[in-house]
Amino acid sequence: MTKICYAVKEIKIPRKYLRSRFIDSVRLHVKGGTGGTGLPKFGGLGGQGGCVYCVGSENANLRQMSKYRAKTISAGHGEDSRKTKIVGNPGSDIKLEVPLGVTVYREDGKVLGAIDKEGDTVIVARGGPGGKPDNNFLGHFGQIHHIRLDLKLIADIGLVGFPNAGKSSLLKAISRAKPRIANYPFTTIKPNKGIIQYEDLRQISMADLPGLIEGAHINIGLGHKFLKHVERTKLLLFIADVEGFRLSPNHTMRTCLETVLLLNKELELYDPELLNKPAILAINKMDLNGAEEIFGEVKESLTNIHNIIDKIPEEIRPENIISFEDIIGISALKGSSVEELKQLLRKRLDDLAEESNPDIIEPSRLLKKNRAIVRERGPQIT
Length: 382
Description:
- By secondary structure, the chain is α/β, with parallel strands linked by helices.
């Protein structure tokens, strides 16, 4: 008797860390409701078609949108007018809860709106008008669009650095986040967001984003998936390895100073406006031998960068040099100077809030304003 053997292919289940991947872009098909038909004999009006909205919610995420894959999200149709009900009811609206930081794009690239706060609403597909005298009592179709929800993390601080510079180690040391940490590049393959908690209950959010490599501005590596998240942060925190960085044996070894200038150039090539954001440089792994000497050289070079910029190789030389508010040496793994950095970040964010607050006026300007008011009113008898 001949035995038949069947080959069974082993199906490997992805690790849990990879299955719970971060989603920052979703494409949806949305359709507004059709307006109801009017009743010309009695002057009846058809109901307005329902609309499709995106509504901002703190607890939402784009993974929830996967249930709409290959489906059309349709709002309700308006009710037709009839003898027993002259004015038809409007169609039911659809409200999609989306996370804060989402920008809604139409299929032709037009921006329909951005959602930055809880409760912010954007109409993505309007319902058709109901039948009335202006349209011969014929209800119209609603709008139909393919839209893209593009998420850009909203955080107070964005970590910028090359792979394996210690960004995730710093996030773990300074906040309550638990990012994946290992001694190899590209440990972080999805953005992590941590909350820095202070003794007086003040909270500051910090985003750890996938590491940059040379050419990120033209989408090499994780490219735009990283860089777009920097746009919504208030403060940039550059993290540089004191020993420099080398992606692979086929790549050039970059010194600590060169990695900082390369980060500067990648941001500049992606969006020059990013260089206007306030920035702090933290040089990591200061527990290594010879780190203090390298730190001193880098700090001095950045202080007098315009005197030495011509000596930097042209391929890594930025046209506009970012100005660092502070340069500090830390050891994220050992916890050295982490508390000092924590207080420094708070101070810089508070200074930024005061500068951008329209209600805060310089004392000299306030004095002139009050004197002008007194002169206009004239003396008063009290």
